[in-house]
From TrEMBL:
UniProtKB keywords: DNA-binding, Transcription, Transcription regulation
KW Transcription regulation (keyword) present: yes
Gene (UniProt): fixK_1
Recorded GO MF terms: DNA binding; DNA-binding transcription factor activity
KW Transcription regulation (keyword) present: yes
A Pfam entry, by short name: cNMP_binding
Organism name: Methylobacterium dankookense
Cyclic nucleotide-binding domain segment(s): 32-80
Domain of life: Bacteria
Descriptive protein name: Nitrogen fixation regulation protein FixK
Cellular component, GO annotation: cytosol
Amino acid sequence: MQTALATTPRIPSIAPGLRIEAASRPETQRGFGAGEEIFAEGDRAGFFYRVASGTVRTCRLLPDGRRQIDAFHLPGDIFGVEAGTEHRFGAEAVGEVRVIAYRRERMLLTGEDGPLAREVAAATLRALARAQDQMMLLGRKSARERIASFLLDLAERMADGPSGHLRLPMPRTDMADHLGLTVESVSRCLTQLERDGLIALSPDRHSVRLRDRAALRHLDA
C-alpha cells in the first residue's frame, strides 16, 4: 500500500549513476513496498522521480506477455523523465523504496529551478548513453559477457569498494528480464564465473565478490 505524501528537506545525491540534486524548496516523498507500482506505462507523466532509498526497476510488458526491464535505478538516480506527456515504461519497487517526486510542469513549463533543469538534462544524456550500451549488450554479447558487463556496471554504480563485495539488490528473474536471458542462464553463468575464479558468491547467493576485474573487463570488451 502506498504511504501518504509528506514533505522532506533537501537530500543530496548519494551514489553514482543518474543524479539529481533536490531543489531548495521541499518536495513530496513517497514510500512503496516490494513489487508495488510507482507508475504504469501510459500514465500521465506529471512527475519525475529521484530514488531516496532502495531500488526501482523500469519495465515494459511485450505483446506476448514477456517482461523487458529497461533499467535499475539506485539511490540518487532519477527516472520517469519523459519527452511526451505519458510514461513509456512502468516503474516498480524492487524492495522497500522511497522516492522523491518533482512536478514536471514546474521545471519544464514555468522555467523555475534552473540548476534542477540542468541536472535533469545531464541525467537524460547519461540515460541515453546507458540505453545505447544496453542495445549493444543485447544485440552482440553472449550470456557470459552480458553477466560480466552487468556486474561491472552495478559495482561501479553501487561503489562496492576495493574488496569488490556487491550485494545484488534484485532477484535472478529481474536480472534475466534485463539482460534478455532465462533465469537458468543467469544462474549457470554466475556459477561458471565462480568456478573460473572471476567472482565469489555468498552462501545465500545474494552477494558477489568481484575477484578478477581484469578478466571480467576482458569479457565485457
